[in-house]
Structures are given as C-alpha cells and as structure tokens.
Design brief:
The chain is mostly helical. It contains five helices and no strands.
Length: about 130
C-alpha cells in the first residue's frame, strides 16, 4: 500500500466515523436535538418549518454519508461529495445566525472533504470509468 493510499484510508475512516456517529447519537434523541438546535435559529430569517424539517432530516443524512464513506469504492466518492454538500448547508445556517466560531469549525470540514475527494484521484481510486 502506498503512502497516498494509507492517507486516503485514514481520512476515510476519520470522516466516515465522524459523520456516522453524528447521525447515530442524534437519532435516539431526535426531538430533543431538534428543539435545542432550532432555538438558535429563532432570530434568523429562516422559517421555523424549514429549520425544523432540515434538523429532523440532518441526522439521517449524516448517518447515510458516514456509511457511504466507510463502504468504500464509488460509495466513498459520493459520500465525500454528499458530506461536503451537507457541511455547506450547515455553514449557511451557521453564518446566518452569525456563529463565526462554529463557521470556522465547519470550514475545517469543508477542507477535509475537499482534500479527501481530491485524494481519491491520487490514490488511483474513485475515478470515473
């Protein structure tokens, strides 16, 4: 295994477990998660129904993204892409409520998903065929 392949494995395991666990720990307490998080968006222009729908869906999306990343093959590529889109949506909401420290943390995820997706080309995996 090359250094690039090992690096790709490390980021795949890290991002995959991170996203998987974000979903897994939130699903059993979904209503409490939504109620707590929704309160932070009360002063934004987002309608409560949109915020609530997004928050009820988010843990299932995170779970699915984590599973796709960990499965490998083409699932990983699309998992990284979906993860990046998910973080983009989160970043939109975070900046809307002017939570700049939270946005800084989410930018780290954006960079991680970008590097992971880019790394698929250098590892020889995930190329379109």
């Amino acid at each position: 295994m090359t250094n690039n392949q090992l690096a790709q494995l490390v980021i795949r395991i890290g991002l995959g477990i991170n996203m998987l666990m974000h979903g897994l720990v939130r699903i059993p307490k979904l209503s409490a998660f939504v109620a707590k998080t929704e309160a932070g968006f009360a002063s934004t222009v987002l309608p409560a129904i949109v915020t609530k729908a997004f928050l009820f869906t988010l843990p299932f999306v995170e779970l699915a993204v984590g599973i796709m990343i960990l499965l490998g093959g083409q699932f990983t590529k699309w998992g990284y892409f979906a993860g990046g889109l998910t973080i983009g949506a989160l970043l939109f909401g975070t900046t809307l409520k002017e939570d700049w420290s939270g946005a800084g943390s989410q930018i780290i995820y954006v960079i991680a998903f970008y590097l992971a997706l880019r790394g698929l080309d250098s590892s020889g995996r995930g190329r379109s065929r």
